[in-house]
Structure formats: C-alpha cells, structure tokens
Amino acid sequence: MYYLRKQMETLTRAELEALQLERLEETIERCMNTFFYRSRFEACGIVPKDIRTLDDLHKIPFTTKQDLRDNYPFGLAAVPMSDVVRLHSSSGTTGTPTVILHTQKDLDEWANAVARCLHMVGLRRGDVFQNSSGYGMFTGGLGFQYGAERLGMLTVPAAAGNTLRQIKFIMDFGTTALHAIPSYASRLHEVMEEMGVNPERDTKLHTLIIGAEPHSEEQRRKIERMLGVKAYNSFGMSEMCGPGVAFECKEQNGMHIWEDYYIVEIVDPVTLEPVPEGEVGELVLTTINREAMPLLRYRTRDLTRILPGECPCGRHHKRLDRMKGRSDDMMILKGVNIFPIQIETILMQFEELCTDYLITLTNEEANDLMTVEVELKEFSDDYPRLQSLTREIIHRLKDEILITPLVRIVPKGSLPKQEGKAVRVRDLRRTLI
C-alpha cells in the first residue's frame, strides 16, 4: 500500500483548506487559554471570530522564539499542566531555553506523522531502523523512535556519536534504514573506508533519512553514491514537535508538508509580507493539530520556497524546497549576501573533493576575506593538477557568490570532525568600535 493514511494523504486542495480552517478555528479557541495569546489578540483589537477564512490568518501577529523564551517555562501552556505528559527543550546555551509541551494526544499524533513520512519512502514492518540522533531533550531521537515503532520496524536507538559502534550495529543487526545528519553520513562512509567496509557489499542499507542541516542536492547525490542508498530529505523543528513536519516522497522532488497538521506561509524576512509562490522567503508555520502548546504564525527563520505544480505521487499537500539556510545564517562580505549552501553546491560538483569543508571569515586592513578549505578525496602530489583544480573552484565560486575567495585544498582528514551538526563557518572578524 503506497499510502499509510490514504484519506488524509490524498485530500484535494479544497478538502485540505476546509479541514485547515476548521482546525484553525479550534486552535485559536484553545490559544485563548493562554495569557500570551489573549493579550496579543486584545492588543490588535481582534477576537477569535474575526478569523473566518484562511486569508484572515494575516490579522494575527507573528510568534517568535523570543516569545517562547519570554514565557519560559510554561507560559504558553494551553491546557492544565496536569494534562502535559512530556516536555522537550532547547539547550539554552545562548540564553533562556525554549520549552515545548505535549499531551498524550500530541505524542500520538507526532508518532503518526513520522510513521506517515517513513512509510511514504517505502519503509515497512520487517525493516531495521537505526537512529543516530541524540535522545533526551533533542526531539530527533524520540520522534523517529516512536514513528518507526508505530510502523512495526525493529528499531536501533543507537543515539549520536561512536562511529565504530554505529557501523558495527549496521552490520550486525542488518540495518536497512538509517537516520543521520548529512555531515555525519559522510563521516560514516569515511570510517567505513578506513575499516575496509563496502556499504553496498557488506551491509543491507537501502534507505537514508537526512535533515537537520542545510545541504545541497549535490551533497545528497554524493552521499547516495558513497553509501549505496536512496537518501530522503526531511524537515522538522522542536517548536513544531520535531521531525515529521515535512518529508520527501519517493519522487525526491520537494518535501510534502502535512497540511492537516500545519498551515504554511512564506514571507519576506525583512518586510514580513507574503512572497509569490515559488520565491524564497522565511517559513512561517501555524500548528492546527496540537493540544498542549499550539503556536500561531511561528517564524522559523528557515529559508525555503513552496514548489509550484503537482507531485506525481498523488499527494496534494504543498511541497517545500530544501532549506536554503536560516535568515540569521547569512554572511555579508563586501556588501554581498552569501549563504553557506551556495558554496557547498559548487564544491560538491567536484568528484575529486570530499564533503567536508570549512569557511573562515577574517578582516585584514578593513577588508573582509573568505577562505574556503575543502578536503581532497584521494591523496595526490600532482601539483599542477591541484593548482588547476583550485583555480577552477575559485572561478565557479566567484561566478556564484560574486566575490573571489581564497581556496585551499587540504588532505583528507585535515579538517576538524564533528559527530553532531557540522560547523561550516568560522567568523573571526572583529567589530571595529
């Protein structure tokens, strides 16, 4: 069966929008249980009955991460705390953490959404699903765990790190599906090579779920070739429960966002006005199927676009393009706006290069400079060839980002390795006072 919940997955646009409006009205009434949203509506001079159509959503102010911090820990609870069975929280390393609350129904619906995603890419009972995400407060661990279990798969909660153990589990347990961030998938392959393990010959892997880091189509294809798998892009965030917000189908042509759970908007991150369909902007999400802590028009800071047209898979839920980065990740050099994924897209076009790279920003004599270090896949002392390769990389990067970076090709294994999210940018510039 191609669909896990055929009725919901194949709703027409008209049916989806009717369901969204019904659930939005219920959500707004629930939000009125919080002082935060009651005050927001009052300040804007609106009441729940003013939201009569989906277009009326724009009357409601945005919710931001700072709002969650200001109402830490339980100020946005829309149900009695006695009904809350779990919370997840950000690390809070840069200030007050954000807290997300869940009722049992919220957890059940979250598991259903993740199961729908995994089923959509062909995973079934009998598959062995290994999860290399962190467990605990991070939602990627438990979110995928419960979704995979709901499908009836044998789950391996390997958690993050310990690459040698991850590979042993993959081989010993017959892992067929793996969840890993893109940079860590590349790290797994690197260690497999060192061990003499051929993933296509020595493992049963056929499916990889990737997400959590912006990555280019070129990097995805390179990972597929390295591990001998089909790699499917996923999107989730703690504020929206976690994984399961949007997911690619087998067509691999954009991530279907489950519109029976969320209302999606794309706005200009500066003006906050809607952008035309197909243009890149900031993703704004409204939850419409959550009890404990519904959020209205939450600014995710993620940059993407809605892909126009229909998907051959038969689902009419809108499709999001891969994340281009975050509005707060943008680098500005010499007046040019640059995102790390632009640089990655160019680097991944060269078969001679690994997937590991590092962008360093410095300032010398009031002049911003960019250095791009990238690892070579195979050792080479053919210096004329390396010089030619360096020049070609610089040329293509200049065409893409409009400035000329310094490019250094370094031996494999030279750059720092992370088993969590990869650090792609070091900004060493000092602010002159």
Would you mind describing this structure in some detail?
The chain is α/β, with parallel strands linked by helices and 433 residues long. The chain contains twelve helices and 21 strands. It has helices spanning 6-9, 13-31, 35-44, 65-70, 104-120, 139-150, 163-172, 182-195, 199-202, 217-227, 340-347, 383-401; strands at 86-89, 99-102, 128-131, 154-156, 177-179, 207-210, 230-237, 242-248, 255-257, 262-267, 281-287, 298-304, 306-307, 319-320, 325-326, 331-333, 336-338, 353-364, 367-376, 406-410, 425-427. Helix 5 (104-120) packs across helix 6 (139-150) and helix 7 packs across helix 8 (182-195). The mean pLDDT is 92.
What's the β-strand tally? 21
- Report the portion of residues in β strands: 15-25%
Tell me the major beta sheet: 9 strands, mixed
Compute the average pLDDT: 92
Radius of gyration: 23 Å
| Count of runs of 4 or more consecutive helical residues | 12
List unreliable stretches of 5+ residues: none
